[in-house]
Amino acid sequence: MIQEILQSNQFIMLMALLLIVSIIVTKFSSRLGVPSLVLFILVGMMVGNEGLGFINFDNPEIAQLVGVIALIIILFEGGMLTKWKDIRPVIAPSLTLATVGVVLTTGIVAVAAKYVLHIGWVEAMLVGAIVGSTDAAAVFAVLKGKNVDGKLEATLEAESGTNDPMAVFLTISFIQLLTVDQVNIFGMVGSFFWQMGAGLVVGAAIGYGASFALNRINLDSSGLYPLFALGFAFLSYGASSLLQASGLLAVYVTAVIIGNAELAYRYSILRFHEGFGWMAQILMFIILGLFVTPSEVFTWPVMSGGLLIAGVLIFIARPAAAFLSLSGFSFTWREKVFLSWAGVRGAVPIVLAIFPMLADIANSQVIFNVVFFTVLTSALIQGSSITWMADRFKLVSDKLGNPIHSLELISIGKANVEMIEFEVTPRNVVVGQKLEDMELPDRALINAIIRKGDVITPYGQTEIKAGDTLYILVSRKNKKEVKKVLEAVTDHGYHEKSRA
């Protein structure tokens, strides 16, 4: 028994060190311009059986389970930060990329996989389907903090949040063609539309129900609200999966609805899921790094095949899919080139590459190794150069957004009031106004102003200036009216993009 306790303690110690090292790695990733997911994978490979030998992990079932759970958390966090008013104008092109674009990418990559890997056509189509979709975890992580044009950022986020159903459908369909003697093609097509439709309906229903519950149920502690919201994320995935619908699509839809609703304790929920999303990314990519066998991946046949397939994917398949899918929409050729380049692959293709191994498909290990190296190449080349590409094509935007955060005050949590934090931009109408002239509701009070690092005690004659950060105490029922006043902008040819 003592030996088991010692082993448990050693495991806990190792997990602590991995978590600390992984978080420190994120700092280096931003300085080196390398996506953090690549470094997380390298950490997993380093402590694995062929690295330092601390952990021996080769269980595909557990790797798949961890990957799916992590993707639920990451999609939920990303969806809550997605603003409906931003993605609404680009829903049509995003869905076209998520469906037609994935099919086109699958077909083009399949041709390369057929002749590069010397496998059958169905197996080649399986490889194309696995790498056919962009990855929400990678896209959200790569775009976070980047000043990419809002329209393009919304298109990429919506595409990555909705293209998993098509990739999963194609992957499972080709696995069935390889393992089942007779397959009903019409049934498979009908299954896809059911997965998309039912996933959308389930996600929307749970999203609206969750928003209502989060606002109406008065919990004893504000710390329970983030966990309450997370429970609805897993409920969305579980309920849709039981109905044979797309669980990941349902999670994303649920998150978008919750994130765009007026929520009590919104700030606590978002901050919790931001940290939990990072935790999920770290865990998922370390597990995937542990699962891979470096001596099999970093061999000349796999590396040369992976480089060729990655080259076709990055420079031929994705651009062709993007230009053809977006041909009927109002995107310039520069924007299409950028959307082509920003189609980063990540965790989803690696998790899907585990499916053939679970189904005992011939050449499944070769497929996994090649897909892993292809994804690693895509993340390194595309992920590290998105900012450069946006700058080169002049597709960056000025800081138009002024975030409104609600700072929940635990001591007055039962009083149904919140503290709003608002950063004033030059375009806001309130610039130049005196506090006594602001048309705020009677139950709203500006408590403090932060100006150039100094705290200013507000009074009636205090004039609001651009760059000020206002702290406003307001009742929840008047919160929307206060936000309307704060977000009003001057009409100088464009409007501010709010991240409320």
Description:
This is Potassium/proton antiporter. It comes from Halobacillus litoralis. Keywords: Antiport, Cell membrane, Ion transport, Membrane, Transmembrane, Transmembrane helix, Transport. The structure is a single chain. The protein starts with a helix and ends in a 13-residue tail after the last helix. The longest helix is centred in the middle third of the chain and has 32 residues. The protein is mostly helical and 500 residues long. It folds into 2 domains: 397 residues, Na+/H+ antiporter like fold, CATH 1.20.1530; 71 residues, Alpha-Beta Plaits, CATH 3.30.70. The C terminus is likely disordered. A hairpin with a 2-residue loop joins strand 3 and strand 4. It contains 21 helices and 5 strands. The protein has a 5-stranded antiparallel beta sheet. It is globular and about 75 Å long. The protein is 63% helix and 6% strand.
Mean pLDDT: 84
Helix content: 55-70%
Q: Extract low-pLDDT stretches.
A: 409-413, 493-500
First and last CA, distance: 54 Å
How large a portion of the residues is in β-strands, by DSSP E? Answer: 5-15%
**Strand elements, count:** 5
Going by CATH, the architecture of the largest domain would be Up-down Bundle
Strand arrangement in the largest pleated sheet: 1-2-5-3-4
Number of helices: 21
- Molecular shape: globular
For the record, what CATH class of the largest domain applies? Mainly Alpha
Q: Please outline the major beta sheet.
A: 5 strands, antiparallel
How many structural domains does the protein architecture include?
A: 2
Q: Helix- and strand-based class? A: mainly alpha
Radius of gyration: 24 Å
**What name does CATH use for the topology of the largest domain?**
Na+/H+ antiporter like fold
Order of helices and strands: HHHHHHHHHHHHHHHHHHHHEEEEEH
GO molecular function, one term: monoatomic cation transmembrane transporter activity
Organism: Halobacillus litoralis
Main location: membrane
Pfam families: Na_H_Exchanger, TrkA_C
